[in-house]
Queue: 2 jobs
Job 1
Amino acid sequence: MSTTQLDSKSYGQYNAKAYSAGSPTSPLAPTIIARRDPGEQDVRLEILFCGICHSDLHQVRNEWSVMPTVYPCIPGHEIIGRVTHVGSAVTKFKPGDIAAVGCLVDSDGSCPECHAGLEQFCPNMILTYNSPDVHLGGMTYGGYSESIVVKEHFVFSVPSNLDLAGAAPLLCAGITTYSPMRHWGVTKGKKVGVVGLGGLGHMAVKFAHALGAHTVVFTTSPNKKDDALSLGAEEVVLSHDADQMNKHASSFDFILDAVSAEHDVNAYVQLLSRDGNITLVGGVDKPHAVSAFGLLLKRRSISGSVIGSIVETQEMLDFCGKHNIAADVEVIPIQKVNEAYERLLKSNVKYRFSIDMKSLKSS
Amino acid sequence: MSTTQLDSKSYGQYNAKAYSAGSPTSPLAPTIIARRDPGEQDVRLEILFCGICHSDLHQVRNEWSVMPTVYPCIPGHEIIGRVTHVGSAVTKFKPGDIAAVGCLVDSDGSCPECHAGLEQFCPNMILTYNSPDVHLGGMTYGGYSESIVVKEHFVFSVPSNLDLAGAAPLLCAGITTYSPMRHWGVTKGKKVGVVGLGGLGHMAVKFAHALGAHTVVFTTSPNKKDDALSLGAEEVVLSHDADQMNKHASSFDFILDAVSAEHDVNAYVQLLSRDGNITLVGGVDKPHAVSAFGLLLKRRSISGSVIGSIVETQEMLDFCGKHNIAADVEVIPIQKVNEAYERLLKSNVKYRFSIDMKSLKSS
């Protein structure tokens, strides 16, 4: 298959509309960016939906000391699109297919992590945004954009039964919660906790339930109880109620901590059974205070997890197709993205914003 | 076999010389304690050597908020002795045998942990000292004593080739370091770090080396380098030298952190490879500051471990017999125990004190 003719403005690249931030304090605003023409291994997508991840907000505002932001920053790594062009060596996709792109667009392919099929740990991985762009120079630009060009290996097939707006957040919120559950053996018969019922947490509840675990949601908001139950939780615990917490002492096989604000991790460590694990997926910049005794006395562990591998992300999407799982989303036009960020800070969304990217055509 | 005649001062119990602390600020001093007559499942040992564990000092001075001390406190849980009397149902031991007792003297035998053969996690386990004594009332009394009476299940056989003074610390320092190495899969081909070259750390080096791992010692003391190498380490890293530390970034499969003073755990987390684990065995009361990103980006984990099971402790002693491993000890009379505590606080011992308990006869 030969590369389809591209509407490039100059040889090797073309222009695309996008929304970018120019500084930590600037609102996102319309801009024009360059995308490369697809090479022989590349797939070009017209972006249909892009989820808004809390990471987008952290990165745009340069809130992570370990990953400083280079401006302009075009965020977005929960991308659903329609294939418009494919390179000559592409075999999995053809124009018209619905496909997806997540947090990674490349890795070195040669390190032990890549050989182990764990691209998310490749020391030279290229993130979908705010990583060096080896093709065009500058930094990679994410999904708040008309289109994107990505190496086939990093493009996923999307099960045909999934709602596309709701499928977008699977590419980060989905895999980020699915991967540690698979890694730490969440199955039927296990007792699993989910801390925080936001974008990640609500996906974690759906996955834990679908994997057959007895699922308990921890929340600070009594008014989230009914929602938690309807998402698939068997129990809801108010985390500031010591009596409710104590009833669950030393009883959990696994807890997924999806809170990205400062909080007391020890309170959850105490709820783990012997050999129980709590995995952090929230990028909290300030260190957690962790009691050694909480870990020692029951051989408990605290770990972290970050997205998942390419193979695992496809597995997750297929699992979602089989169980008809997508994120609960509020669909917005790109023009409302700054307002959405403010609402995200107040957890005022059930549970994820998904940008309908056709709105960008009119911006 | 019938119970041997006991020198009990009153029915059901007898008196024994011991050293006890009367308050958090009192020195240890001679006293007389009651021991029970052996029941049919019990073994009575004349104590030959008792190691001095850092836990003894913490407990005597009531420094652990999670385990408050009841006074008088008679510490000691690294006990080597000669069997003098056995109950009628005892099958593994006979008078004259050399045997050992560690940190546990009983557990409920009926909980899931006991059924799993993991008595160290039994919620009703009885510690060798400072636990409720169900036989005589009051609290259990440890090994700074002439003799002890313990249920057979919690008494170990000691390989005949081991030096008895050096074998005593195996019962806590030994199993505490051996158990997590076995649990986290330390074998030939793994790169293993040991933080802190004290009582626990020097045992960890011996075990990691004997298990075939490439063993690296982290220390703040340049003058410990030669000792670390002679104990079996392949490399020694000065932990306050950032360049030396950075050379080992993301390279360790497992690190055993044996430091029981406040220190920066994140510095070692950064040295773990993907899926690497650092296990804390030091009981530091103040919480550790743990960076979430350090865990997230390589799926690393921090865990704790506490002693080991009864089966595993016997396995460890047998491993020590096979590899001729014992602690490096300075043998002292019981009369020097308070001085030894002060030296322990300054890490002024290579690497463990072992009390020659025959000294108690003259006190």
Job 2
Amino acid sequence: MLIHSASQLVTISGGPQRGVDLGRLGIIPNGAMRVQDGIIADIGITDDLLEKYPDEPHVDASGRVVMPGLVDPHTHVIWAGDRAAEFELRLEGKTYLEILASGGGILSTVQATRLASREELAVQTLARLNRMLALGTTTIEAKTGYGLSQDSELKMIKVLVELARKGPWDLAITYLPAHAIPPEYKDDADGYCKELAEAWLPEMKSWWQANAADLPLPFVDVFCETGAFTLEQTDLILRAAIAEGFPVKIHSDEFDNLGGTTLAVRLGAASADHLVAASYRDIEALGESNTVAVALPGTPFGLGTSDYAPGRAILAAGGILALASDLNPGTSWCESMQMAIALGCRQMKLTPSQAIAAATINAAAAIGKDGEVGSLEIGKQADFLILDVADYRHLGYRYGGNLVAEVYKRGIQVYSASGGSL
Amino acid sequence: MLIHSASQLVTISGGPQRGVDLGRLGIIPNGAMRVQDGIIADIGITDDLLEKYPDEPHVDASGRVVMPGLVDPHTHVIWAGDRAAEFELRLEGKTYLEILASGGGILSTVQATRLASREELAVQTLARLNRMLALGTTTIEAKTGYGLSQDSELKMIKVLVELARKGPWDLAITYLPAHAIPPEYKDDADGYCKELAEAWLPEMKSWWQANAADLPLPFVDVFCETGAFTLEQTDLILRAAIAEGFPVKIHSDEFDNLGGTTLAVRLGAASADHLVAASYRDIEALGESNTVAVALPGTPFGLGTSDYAPGRAILAAGGILALASDLNPGTSWCESMQMAIALGCRQMKLTPSQAIAAATINAAAAIGKDGEVGSLEIGKQADFLILDVADYRHLGYRYGGNLVAEVYKRGIQVYSASGGSL
């Protein structure tokens, strides 16, 4: 298949983009791309490729942007129930305690998720993944963390493994039993951490090798925050994970600075995520490391606060900055990386080209998939979007809608705006 | 036609909602509605209506919300060109003067719009109206104001009249040659205002009576702001408009407080729009009037600023608060009233029910159409949405996507998510 005559073929070639180099889009005007067996086989200008491959089936992208599929490297996409009532209570001025008393908060999602069958969880998650695909997100990180018991966390893992095999999206699975202290351990957080480190993690490793060896080992993640896990607890859990061979991530500095970001760098974590309260020293550490700095502008936006991750400071320090949605039922039910880009521009003062690179190649790096997706280069997966605009800068500039006309995953059309979603 | 089994039939009955009464949604659980000849003929609970009208064709809305079509009472939907490059320059830190020097700013849109043919303008505007329809907006206010010459403003009016007749949307047309001082008058703003008041307005009145008498007279609007029109100039233009019989509106207090809001109330304007810099006295005046307070949260969001219209203060004063998108190519290219609702909740601390009433019945009041649209009541137009959720609060709670499954205008399906847009 030959996609040709793109007004801009946005390649984002050359690997993850560090520091102020962020935003190199490698645009080929009047660009073309040949896809074979789901892989990008050639790339160049339209005249050359039409001459080289005259008999290939054609897709005419005249007047449109062709770009890599968006990558969302931080989501809590699997859960049961919703918290719409809690959202309203919060706006009516109810306090956190009143909301808890009326059944709100993260533990209400834990309760609904524990009660849900695998089938119910799969149906609800599938609907979200399909909407994300229609909004142009072709590779998605997905965390457990609303089970908080070994059985229900495993139930979430099983559903995610099933959805990862089903596709067409690529899923990067993350095991996050350290998302909150489960009610059963509310007076013994250390005991929970010890249980995780000594039993759940080795048992997850064995389960994975026996049941999901076709997929890469999941990430292990910890929510390092006041009210969740301390720095010492985070360190304990992640060292145990690393000893088992799991790659790791940390939710750090969302509200309070506990030192999670610098720990992420020290442990060689794939990413440190949130970073709103990161210190100058944390940012310097990120700048000297390969730990990707994942900003989640939907979270402060969702909460109606005004503190965003210091994107420009991270770039000035030389960090690898990525964007993600943080899709979750509490603080930010947003399935659109186009929205994350629009927020990154307005609230973090990224340019559209920076935000786009942060939402593709750097986002892929945050989940260890930058060798396969996140750019349009020979040998990579043919995951790409055709936008209904002639200039990439409309991403960011426009917001609240969907600029995607067509989505292709491994060379196959999986969404078309004119034909509805598959 | 009988739409039945809605989990919530959101009627928003009883007319515009003033002050802290905002948010009465008049929800009928398991609701049903009979539509005849494009008008709502009956409304009630499903069992009753199924028994009364057993032979009517049925639409099953089980597990879904049925609500009035959204009304967008402030847009600049008609223009040519775009300002994506300017958006990028702004984020790169370029100054306003540098942007002007590189061809940016409102006058670049004026130049493109003056050069565009009626056909080009119609095609670009039609695409936007169709996207708005797919996002659930069935009634749309549309302003001229990028022509700024009598001919090009008339060209915009002609396109809008043509699009209003074409439908399926209802358009409320607004004549806004007082959007900016045209380059030809840059040293003679008073002369421009005199020309408008003494020649353009009476001539527009005559043109309308001869060519568009099937449509209500347009609103006349003025951008009362530092760098645009002074309070005295606004007063002069609007008094002339009122003398000709035009209903009027004012863009007031977007950045600076020039007194436009209180003038709007004194003149009996249909609405005062923006209101970010409104004073306590302005808000009190709105509270005692029928002038609708139109908040445009997309504008500060689009600009990345943190000052929003004081929605709760307007409610406390007893004002009639509406939401609008302010869709325009400079500060806020957003076609989604769902996004305006999400912003109203997060940035103005409205509850979902308040934001929904502000985006339907009160928005209709801002353009004098609350007798026809904006609620689901017997005798009103059957303009309604079927949302792909069971609880209205998902509007506001979720953002960045499209919760609309189906859109009906005058009883006819004009959009379906599964079948693409018409």
